[in-house]
Amino acid sequence: MSYNLLKGKKGIVFGALNEMSIAWKVAELAVEQGAEIVLTNTPVSIRMGDIDQLAEKCNAHVVPADATNVEDLENLFTKSMELLGGKVDFVLHSIGMAPNVRKGNSYDNLNYEYLKKTLDVSAISFHKVLQAAKKLDAINEWGSVVALTYVAAQKTMYEYNDMADAKAMLESITRSFGYIYGREKRVRINTISQSPTVTTAGSGVKGFDKLIDFSERMSPLGNADATECAEYCITLFSDLTKKVTMQNLFHDGGFSSMGMSYRAMRQYNKSFSEE
Ligand SMILES: NC(=O)c1ccc[n+]([C@@H]2O[C@H](COP(=O)([O-])OP(=O)(O)OC[C@H]3O[C@@H](n4cnc5c(N)ncnc54)[C@H](O)[C@@H]3O)[C@@H](O)[C@H]2O)c1
What we know:
Layout: E1 10-14, H1 22-32, E2 36-40, H2 43-48, H3 51-58, E3 61-62, H4 70-84, E4 88-93, H5 99-103, H6 112-135, E5 139-149, H7 163-185, E6 188-194, H8 208-218, H9 226-237, E7 248-251, H10 262-274
Parallel strand pairs: 1-2, 1-4, 2-3, 4-5, 5-6, 6-7
Helix pairs in contact: 1-3, 1-9, 4-6, 6-7
């Protein structure tokens, strides 16, 4: 249902690869709520994925950009302002990649070139996005920037590997840049810490289906899905959350506050009765 929460607003959405992507749902919902958007992804993801379908549905332009490349980002912001007829009001950073996870390298046997890639793509790219936007003065006052993260930044999660370090850095950049961008331009910056969600990036984590089941049993409200994550993003892009900044906001059905739940304990006990 549209509440026109983003009526008259313009935004850039990074990271829609296919229909499962969280960014895909955010793009659809932003437009449904009255926004005009530009979609972006790497040239290879644009070729391999389905972003053109989304662009057609959202009546949006696609501007390619590798989020690790500053020139690409400057071009993206400049072009987006031309296409949208002015500065943007919101940006979604929905980007992640971890070659060590993909190759099955354990945390005590990391390939450091892969680690650098993980940090650059999944965390430093957020700094690059913010710095490019600020230099070009591309975001309106009271604009809102959101990046997606995971609770492994705070608590060690089996098999999340070096992506946990990337997420910790992403959340730190949110605070450090949030101070400067807030003070100088009234732009707010937050991360949403989302439940495990079935997407292309998510499914790269070993034992992902079990992780989803475990966190579903642990969360009093159950896991949050991609559409619910998109709904939360929309509230943060709207004018209803103007004084929320520099926060890591858990969107996980309560998982992050739990130690043990009845449902998880019951399942755990079953493994003893089988022995
Ligand atoms: N799926 C989950 O369980 C989950 C949980 C919490 C947080 N997140 C986070 O949500 C975000 C979105 O992931 P998703 O689950 O929707 O998966 P996804 O695979 O659909 O999206 C990841 C996107 O990152 C893009 N990307 C990779 N390298 C890039 C680069 N150099 N420049 C620009 N874009 C690049 C990919 O093309 C892809 O569109 C990620 O930050 C992820 O870590 C996901």
